[in-house]
Fold Ferredoxin.
Amino acid sequence: MWSDQAPEAGRVGAERGRCVGAGQCVLAAPAVFDQDEHDGLVVVLAEVPAPSQSDAVHDAVRACPSGALTFR
């Protein structure tokens, strides 16, 4: 059924302890992820990204070689 309410936003999670600094998340979703300039590990720029970023965030989660990212 159609609703005029916006869909519930997803939330990004990143486990820096699992991150290996491959940067695949940044390549897939640069508006949502970055890398720390000191250690190269993931930095989440938008914990609740815009709905238009949803596909890119899902791509980033799938591309992460260490499984450090979640999107729920």
Observations:
- The radius of gyration is 13 Å.
